[in-house]
Amino acid sequence: MRYFLGLFQKKITSGLLVTSVFFVGACSAGTNSSGGGGTGANSNSGRTIRISIGTQDQVINTAVGGAAVRELELLEKHLPRDGQYEGVEYEIEWSSYTSGPPITNRMLADQIDIGLMGDFPAVINMVTFQQESRDANSIFIGTLAYSPNGAGNAVVVPMDSNATSLADLRGGTVSVPFGSAAHGMLLNALADVGLDPETDVDLISQSPEVGGASLRTRQIDAHADFVPFGELFPFRGFARKIFDGAQTGVPTLHGIVVRSDFAEEHPEIVVAYLKAVLEANQMFQADPEGLSTQIGEWSGIDKEVVYMFLGPSGLQPLDPTIRETQVDALKNSIATLTDLGRFEDPIEPNEVTNWIDEGYLRQAMEELDLDYDEVIATAEAYQITGEDALTGEEITDPKLAAQFWVQGEDTVRNFASISNMVKALVELQAEGEAANVMFVHDKNHGWKLFAENSYFVSNGDDVSAFLLEADAQAYASETGGQMTAFRGLQDLYAGQKPLLVGAAP
Question: What is the pLDDT of residue 342?
Fold first, then answer.
């Protein structure tokens, strides 16, 4: 008896209907790629199943489905080896791209079976399959990392730019990868501050690599991009963030799509792949610094940036499920792309629910003895905890916590407050040591920030961090606090006169 698919409709919180697939019973017989059935190793002798996966190694939100699964050989660990797969040889093909469109093109040509991409490329992928493919559809089967408010997309400017907000970009040249999630974010954000992208700025399309080079050489006034470049460029010291996608409040994600014909012929392999993703999530949550370091080596993205996104209290939680927030991210992408005129035929955003299938993921959880709700709870509880590395006090509010990563150490040091972190940093520097990176959180929103690129307001030992200069100024005025740059905080706790902030930190 073969695996067979039983389709049913499952209501999610929003009342939407999302098609799910349940796997029911399996015996030894099954179809193979040559069209014949059989059991045992002899009948499968010489049979090869190709599994082609397209990822984006530099887009570190795909790491737990891409580089980590590939380099740690987690897919090989979970692939079926008995029943209809006994004696089968697997040919696993990995390919990495800088964006989603090339993955979609190769999926349409049946050269890639499983693709990893952001929300905007994912809906373009699924819509294109609906409109152009005759032999298959594309199905969204799981989330890699996501943000309920849009964190990850960002707008950055050269370090010496006078711009501190989007409104300051009027008359300037702004680049962004057209058709990306960052593109949609930028258009909405410009409109919110009263700027017309057609007339008030010169909007051009540039890839992350080109945009970074243009920022270094001051050929553009600002660059908007997706994960991880809004944090990577500031970390590398040649850009400063003036707008975070989280300010839009619009959810964003990276996820997994699969060709429907591959999933229907080999549902066990799709489940095996998702088991590998689930294991990668567990490994990251157990050792975020270690996995960040490895992902940094595999992707070329600094480990500190990887940790900022995917570590505890990070910008992008690792939650593989497809719930209301994730569905909203896909629906919002369709609405924005429709407004941009990217679809020849109008697409109703709710139609995306017909291309979502969480059944493979649920089956993977069942086979790993994982409870669906517990997986969600684990992701939501993945916050900074433990004892303050300076005082030993318990860290009770992750949004007030701060961290630094000492050069040569394997783990990050956690602190209950920014002031404790700065005191410990001053002591560290007095001993001749240094930290690679310091993390704080925005006072108003809880967003994780690089301390050196943030604005601070100090009232004695009560220190608050802000992404935006205007927010820091408002809080300083409200509380009578002193506004400083991070260097000023260090000087203050080292007994020197603090550096007041008048422009960029």
Answer: 78
Topology agreement, domain 154-246 and domain 398-493 = no
Indicate the DSSP class of residue 417: S
Sign for the CA dihedral angle at 242, 161, 175, 309 comes to negative
The pairing of beta strand 448-450 with beta strand 435-441: antiparallel
> Is pTM, for the whole model, over 0.85?
yes
Going from N- to C-terminal start, the domains of the chain cover: 46-146+251-380, 154-246, 398-493
Superfamily of domain 154-246: Periplasmic binding protein-like II (3.40.190.10)
- Tens digit of pLDDT for each residue in 474-486? 999 999 999 999 9
Helix ranges restricted to H, 160-266: 181-192, 208-216, 229-235, 260-265
3-state secondary structure of 406: strand
Q: How many CB atoms lie within 10 A of CB 503?
A: 10
User: What would the pLDDT profile of 25-39 be if each residue is shown by its tens digit?
Assistant: 333 233 333 333 444
Residue 303, amino acid = K
Determine whether domain 46-146+251-380 maps to CATH 3.40.190.10.
yes
Q: Locate tokens 């967003």: which residue? A: 447
What's CA 80's distance to the chain center, in Å?
29
Sequence-distant contacts of 404-407: CB under 8 A, at least 24 apart: 404/428, 404/435, 404/436, 404/437, 404/438, 404/439, 404/451, 405/289, 405/304, 405/307, 405/435, 405/436, 405/437, 406/433, 406/434, 406/435, 406/436, 407/433, 407/434, 407/435, 407/436
Q: How far apart are the first and last CA of the chain?
A: 66
Q: Express each pLDDT in 46-76 by its tens digit.
A: 899 999 999 999 999 999 999 999 999 999 9
pLDDT at 454: 93
In this prediction, the residues of the chain whose per-residue pLDDT falls under 50 are 1-41, 499-505
Question: Which residues face 438 on adjacent strands?
Answer: 404
Sign of dihedral through CA atoms 304, 308, 313, 318?
negative
- CA atoms lying within 13 Å on the CB side of residue 68: 32
Q: Within 13 A of 25's CA, how many CA atoms are on the CB side?
A: 5
